[in-house]
């Protein structure tokens, strides 16, 4: 990401950063802060991490420092890492990827976070747990928090009140697309999907239904209304959560997501940071800003500089890395370039396993076998890390030679490998950024959150991929028709037929045309960085122009 650094020295300010406790939100926010520090050397930043995520974040910081070690902050004031402190809130922990450990880490972090925030606003050097505050002489005057930290506004109010400090302006980091923000929070008179769900839950609770039961009942309740989008085609509301019925989402997780609605409208919030390209959904931004009365800052994909510049060196950091990259090397030798389909299964809390299928005639049958699984046996509900992939799923391919399965793939290296032809993706914001920067077309299989809107933007507006339709599974059996008129049959034969067609498209002339359009899309993002909304908004954030 190349934006001109500030020429003239500016008064330093201390930025407090409160991320979410899961990687999909945390990593782009972390790289946003690194990019801001590179552009604006007057900023000092403190990031408050949970113990389980701290080690992984520090590894990313070390990698960033090593790759940028020759780049000094403007004016020779030292390396960027000197302007950043990463504070682990609580005791050190060994990262164990299971659901119980993840839940405990979140609970522990929530318990100790208020104390750390108060100590930082008090200017204390000793934060407890052996943590030191290198910027103790600078009380935070700006805050960036993740949208999922819905308890933080009250924590901040209490902390600044107790130490007699003014409330700093707060920007909320929202790693969702602009169209998703519109549907979640703005439609129907600033109600959106999240507001509607919460109102229905409140009515149920008032009628005597237990809170957990109300969340279980209402979170998947779609009335079948048309969402009249601005920059993407109209959709029925249930189309925006196209595989939600396949998810094993604990009620406790739902109870932690929908209150995000209150964060978006909290009076301490000055605006929103979105790691997407504003020019792509410009009319939607105008409507959101008008309706919500707060600015949206379009900062574009937040990834390491090596991803922007395609200079990331091949690195073998694990057995999975070696297995995946060796497989791709072999497939390029045997089948040629662009001969492999990369499939990543998703998880709400940890990176899912990665699967590769070569796209010759044999593998087409293999992928059809795989593609029916989400509908009939819900294998995509077990994405490793927190839940292991079922053995019967793996057994499907035990005699399938052009196939490789790993728990964690080096995704950027995979996407940039010459053998990779296309990417079957859930269209999460991070994967979307990486596949565009790698100029790889997609087959979209969105599940929930903002993935439906992102898939529509990529496949229907920019036409850099194809959306899988016959696997879509809605909670209401009556919801079997998409707004574009497609009937969801959902049988094995229907899915196989669709997948055969997708294989023909992605390996033929249409796939080549998609690759050209992805490259053009990438250039549009780079132009936005150089002279458009991304460069403008990164400058505004760094200068503290948040109103």
How would you portray this structure in words?
Helix content is 45%, strand content 13%. It has 547 residues and is an alpha/beta fold. Strands 3-2-1-6-7-10-11 form a seven-stranded parallel beta sheet. α4 links the parallel β6 (142-146) and β7. α5 (178-190) packs across α10 (282-292), α6 packs across α7 (211-218) and α13 crosses α19 (492-506). The longest helix has 24 residues, at 99-122. It is globular and about 65 Å long. Pfam families: UDPGT. This is UDP-glycosyltransferases domain-containing protein. Keywords: Transferase. One of its GO terms (molecular function) is UDP-glycosyltransferase activity.
Name its key features.
single chain; 547 residues; alpha/beta; Rossmann fold; 7-stranded parallel sheet; 21 helices; globular
CATH architecture of the domain at 311-524: 3-Layer(aba) Sandwich
CATH homologous superfamily label of the domain at 311-524: Glycogen Phosphorylase B
Rg measurement, Å: 23 Å
Distance between the termini: 24 Å
CATH class of the domain at 311-524: Alpha Beta
Q: Record the strand order, biggest sheet.
A: 3-2-1-6-7-10-11
- What proportion of the residues is helical, as a percent range? 40-55%
Output the CATH topology of the domain at 311-524.
Rossmann fold
- Category from helices, strands and their pairing: alpha/beta
Number of strands: 17
User: What percent strand?
Assistant: 5-15%
Largest sheet: 7 strands, parallel
Report low-confidence residues grouped into runs of 5 or more.
70-77, 347-353, 359-386
Estimate the mean pLDDT confidence: 84
Treating each run of at least 4 consecutive H or I residues as one helix, how many helices?
21
User: Overall 3D geometry?
Assistant: globular
GO molecular function: UDP-glycosyltransferase activity
Keywords: Transferase
Protein name: UDP-glycosyltransferases domain-containing protein
Organism: Cryptococcus amylolentus CBS 6273
């Amino acid at each position: 990401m190349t934006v001109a650094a500030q020429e003239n020295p500016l008064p330093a300010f201390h930025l407090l950063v409160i991320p979410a406790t899961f990687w999909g939100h945390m990593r782009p926010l972390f790289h946003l802060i690194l990019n801001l520090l590179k552009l604006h050397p007057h900023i000092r930043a403190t990031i408050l991490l949970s113990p389980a995520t701290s080690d992984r974040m520090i590894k990313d910081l070390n990698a960033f420092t090593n790759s940028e070690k020759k780049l000094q902050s403007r004016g020779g004031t030292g390396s960027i890492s000197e302007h950043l402190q990463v504070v682990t809130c609580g005791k050190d922990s060994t990262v164990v990827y299971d659901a119980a450990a993840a839940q405990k880490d979140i609970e522990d972090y929530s318990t100790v976070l208020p104390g750390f925030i108060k100590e930082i606003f008090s200017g204390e050097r000793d934060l407890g747990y052996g943590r030191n505050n290198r910027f103790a002489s600078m009380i935070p005057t700006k805050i960036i928090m993740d949208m999922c930290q819905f308890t933080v506004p009250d924590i901040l109010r209490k902390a600044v009140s107790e130490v007699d400090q003014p409330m700093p302006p707060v920007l909320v980091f929202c790693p969702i697309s602009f169209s998703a923000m519109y549907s979640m929070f703005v439609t129907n008179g600033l109600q959106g999907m999240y507001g509607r769900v919460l109102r229905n839950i409140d009515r149920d609770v008032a009628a005597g239904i237990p809170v957990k039961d109300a969340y279980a009942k209402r979170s998947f309740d779609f009335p079948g209304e048309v969402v009249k989008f601005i920059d993407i085609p109209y959709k029925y509301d249930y189309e925006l959560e196209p595989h939600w019925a396949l998810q094993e989402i604990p009620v406790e997780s739902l109870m932690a997501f929908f209150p995000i609605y209150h964060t978006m409208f909290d009076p301490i919030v000055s605006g929103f940071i979105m790691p997407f390209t504003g020019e792509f959904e410009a009319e939607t931004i105008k409507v959101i800003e008008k309706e919500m009365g707060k600015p949206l800052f379009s900062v574009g994909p937040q990834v390491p500089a090596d991803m922007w510049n395609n200079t990331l060196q091949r690195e073998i950091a694990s057995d999975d890395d070696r297995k995946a990259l060796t497989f791709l090397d072999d497939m390029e030798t045997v089948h040629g370039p662009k001969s492999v389909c990369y499939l990543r299964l998703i998880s709400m809390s940890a990176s899912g396993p990665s699967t590769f299928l070569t796209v010759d005639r044999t593998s087409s049958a293999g992928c059809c076998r795989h593609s029916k699984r989400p509908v009939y046996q819900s294998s995509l509900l077990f994405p490793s890390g927190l839940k292991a992939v079922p053995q019967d799923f793996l057994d499907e391919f035990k005699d399938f030679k052009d196939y490789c399965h790993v728990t964690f793939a080096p995704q950027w290296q995979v996407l940039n490998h010459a053998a990779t032809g296309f990417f079957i993706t859930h269209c999460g914001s991070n994967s979307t950024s990486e596949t565009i920067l790698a100029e790889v077309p997609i087959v979209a299989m969105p599940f929930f959150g903002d993935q439906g809107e992102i898939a529509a933007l990529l496949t229907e507006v920019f036409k850099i991929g194809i959306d899988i339709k016959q696997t879509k599974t809605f909670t209401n059996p009556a919801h079997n028709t998409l707004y574009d008129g497609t009937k969801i049959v959902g049988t094995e034969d229907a899915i196989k037929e669709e997948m055969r067609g997708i294989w023909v498209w992605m390996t033929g002339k249409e796939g080549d045309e998609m690759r050209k359009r992805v490259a053009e899309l990438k250039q549009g993002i780079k132009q936005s960085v150089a002279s458009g909304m991304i460069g403008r908004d990164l400058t505004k954030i760094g200068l503290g122009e948040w109103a």
